Amino acid sequence: MDDSARQADAGEPAHPRTPPPPPSPSADIGAASIDSTYRDRSDEPLKLESEQWDITSISALAAVRMLIQGLESLAEATGDVPPTPPVSRPHTPNTEDMLRRISTAGASIPVPPITIGSPEAHPHEPITVIAGNAEDIVYQHAAIARRFFSKVAPPFTLYEYLLRLHKWCPHSPGVYLAAAAFCHRLCASDLMVPATNRTIHRLSLAAIRVSAKALEDNKWPQDRMAKVGGVSKTQLMNLEVTLCFLLDFDLWVDDKMLARRMYLLQQAARQGLGAQGKLADEFKLKLPLRKKLALAAS
Prior knowledge:
The protein is an all-alpha fold. It has helices at residues 3-9, 29-39, 60-78, 95-104, 134-146, 158-168, 173-189, 200-215, 222-229, 233-246, 255-270, 279-282, 289-297. The chain has one domain (67-297): Cyclin A, domain 1.
């Protein structure tokens, strides 16, 4: 039996004379229920007293505010930690040329220009271990950390920076919570990167970008994220690679881990992990465990 016969048996015309009505997303029950769920979420950041809390109770704005508060408080407690110079300091590119490239990148995007400042590290500084002796490892530690350092602290707060990012490239609450989890691992748990006013901007940008790529199907274009973040596309790529390398490419998270890491980030800030003068003297960058094992076997 052909399709027209089936339609006739079902009491429907074989060739309808008028097209069906256009779709109406607002009338869809599923979409309406999702919208109402997000409208019910609070925009107020939470001060956590336990790792047992409902991550679905906060909006994306609340999540990014919690990330900001945790990193800013941790940076205030840590103070400034100067990065170790690289093996050989290459020629620093002309700052005016760099700013001009940043301002013209993605010129078609109606986003106000911004610059986060010049990075401490040269784009071609290595991030992988090239030798096994202690001296080379020290330089490798420095090269890894230097990618997150700005030469000087940006002329705006992390609050202003990430709210700008959320305005022009908004993400889901889970992305900001995952970024907080990654930052806690690097800054407080594993002590790989110090949270200072010269690192938290680049670190949070990289953490949010990597989190979005790990958790979401739809992502903002690279040129838009770079322009909103005030860096070049190459710098953003280097920051992402560095973050993944330091995390040993372990990007898996679940709801319990997101809740726990955000709580621990707030706890680290409250307890003054790396208080003024202490972390600057004792901070030692670490390589991921897999890299250590590879060195031991060589």
